[in-house]
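Below is a filled-in request sheet from our internal design queue. Each sheet records the structural input a requester submitted and the sequence that came back. We keep these sheets so that new team members can see what a complete request looks like end to end.

REQUESTER: design group, bay 2
PRIORITY: normal
MODE: inverse folding
CHAIN LENGTH: 238
BACKBONE (tokenized):
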């Protein structure tokens, strides 16, 4: 019963139905437009519940009659599999640079993708906080975080021209509460970079190193030279 409810939510709230004549546009191909006709695919899987994935998009077919697309999330796959869906290999719309042409459908697809990103980030942060709690790593004081800058996806450029990017999630979940020092051109330890308990990456601002270290030590943060590796802390030197 619970899984049936999740399927309904997936269909009516978090998916787009691809009906015959569904219009699409390829913005990166000069605005070329076209339409989708999934009749042959539906015929191939008549009477079956199947799904396929490509480039972060998941398509699923209900009983060989209805065709839907949503974002490719592990939880969604579990819901489908628990409902008897099987993985197959077929064309996945909206996964190769094509977008809905009609404004209403385009806006709905953007909302679905945006919500998936927010849900994934929230889930990752919750996982990290749980791990940090198990390791007895505490939360830094708001006043201390106020002296730091969170590194966004697009990176953060320092005054010397170097640009740093967040620690990738595959590393961050194992580096919670870890920090290292960044040196200036004179070899002096000037800034601290650290992975916070929610998996985000932060840099201290100039001139507040000592006070920040005191709170870090109180919260069981620890020094790790692993953060200096380029694949762990991506950077572009200025």
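RETURNED SEQUENCE:
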């Amino acid at each position: 019963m619970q899984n049936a409810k999740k399927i309904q939510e997936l269909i009516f709230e978090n998916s787009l139905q691809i009906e015959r004549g569904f219009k699409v546009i390829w913005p990166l191909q000069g605005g070329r437009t076209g339409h989708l006709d999934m009749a042959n695919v539906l015929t191939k899987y008549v009477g079956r519940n199947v799904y396929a994935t490509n480039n972060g998009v998941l398509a699923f077919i209900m009983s060989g009659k209805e065709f839907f697309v949503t974002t490719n999330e592990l939880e969604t796959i579990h819901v489908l599999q628990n409902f008897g869906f099987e993985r197959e290999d077929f064309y996945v719309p909206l996964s190769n640079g094509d977008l809905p042409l009609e404004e209403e459908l385009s806006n709905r697809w953007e909302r679905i993708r945006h919500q998936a990103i927010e849900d994934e980030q929230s889930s990752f942060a919750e996982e990290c906080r749980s791990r940090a709690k198990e390791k007895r790593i505490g939360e830094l004081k708001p006043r201390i975080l106020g002296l730091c800058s969170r590194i966004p996806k697009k990176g953060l450029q320092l005054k010397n021209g170097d640009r740093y990017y967040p620690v990738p999630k595959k590393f961050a979940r194992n580096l919670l509460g870890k920090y290292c020092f960044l040196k200036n051109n004179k070899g002096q330890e000037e800034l601290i970079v650290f992975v916070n308990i929610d998996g985000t990456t932060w840099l201290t601002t100039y001139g507040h190193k000592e006070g920040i270290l005191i709170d870090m030590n109180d919260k069981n943060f620890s020094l790790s030279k692993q953060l200096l590796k380029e694949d762990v802390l991506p950077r572009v030197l200025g």
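SHEET NOTES:
- The CA atoms of residues 162 and 237 lie 4 Å apart.
- The longest strand covers residues 189-195.
FILED BY: M.R.
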